[in-house]
């Protein structure tokens, strides 16, 4: 019998926000695992789109399909922060974070499901955050969006479970990226039982597992990558 | 019968083909009187089928119409009706 065809030979992996931080580490790791990898970002990246704009996302997916093949792995990583106490949080700060971090992930997921259904195979990983489950003062918008991602994750998992399409989430804790570099309080790092911040590659390794054929029965799960901060 | 560009048999065969592609067991046995329940077609299968039929027959099936389709015969008649409406006079 010929060896079974690898999913990597039938399509590509798309990482949103794949230019920096966790996204860049995920793109590098999936490439090392044999995936043709496309990155999507507002500027830079292999294709450009503001994930808040469903039309732009549709056009970007068409470009990815043409250049890299159908999307069989989607990592929804694009995210922004605009912190402030809820009492004084502007409508704009609330909407900008919800629209990018949650609605943007939905836009990308909706597009990806179509090619995954045709292929009868797919892996979606949503990059949530420890604040989805613990809350964090100053991050009402960010925590709400990241918690929303967990609801989206579980629902897509149930909708697609019969089709060999899985949808899981990771909840990174304090990770060494540009996004956390500004204003990571030493007290927060001290609270991490592991005694250190995490590396983007460590989050990427967890995501790569969830994207692998071996993870077929892991579906709707939330995998913490946080040095036991949330334990 | 109407002046529809497609016969019932053509649409029925298209439905069998698409259900087979969607990996619905026993799709080739579908007849005009087959219910989705008989074939274990779930709501996601139905959405996939309808999307494929829209592409094949260049029709647009509204979400409201989707709920009315309880089996193969309903789907064939709906595609017929929409093709009629869209056919040149």
Walkthrough of the structure:
The complex is a heterodimer of chains A (231) and B (89). Chain A is α/β, with parallel strands linked by helices and 231 residues long. Chain A has one domain: 3-Layer(aba) Sandwich (Rossmann fold), CATH 3.40.50. Chain A has helices at residues 21-32, 54-68, 91-119, 131-134, 140-160, 178-181, 186-190, 200-211; strands at 12-16, 37-41, 47-48, 71-76, 122-127, 165-172, 222-225. A seven-stranded parallel β-sheet of chain A has the order 3-2-1-4-5-6-7, sandwiched between helices. Chain A is globular. The mean pLDDT of chain A is 94. Chain B has 89 residues and is an all-alpha fold. Chain B has helices spanning 8-21, 36-39, 43-57, 63-66, 72-86. The model of chain B has no long low-confidence stretch (mean pLDDT 89). The interface between A and B is small, with 6 and 4 residues.
Q: Look at the helices and sheets of chain A and give the structural class.
A: alpha/beta
Q: Secondary-structure element order of chain B, as H and E?
A: HHHHH
Number of domains of chain A: 1
Low-confidence stretches of chain B: none
Q: What is the number of helices of chain A?
A: 8
As residue ranges, the low-confidence spans of chain A are: none
Shape of chain B: globular
Range of strand content of chain B = under 5%
Q: What number is the mean pLDDT of chain A?
A: 94
Using only CA atoms, what is the Rg of chain A?
17 Å
Radius of gyration of chain B: 12 Å
Distance between the termini of chain A: 46 Å
Spatial strand order of the main sheet of chain A = 3-2-1-4-5-6-7
What proportion of the residues of chain B is helical, as a percent range? Answer: 55-70%
Largest sheet: number of strands, sense, barrel closure of chain A: 7 strands, parallel
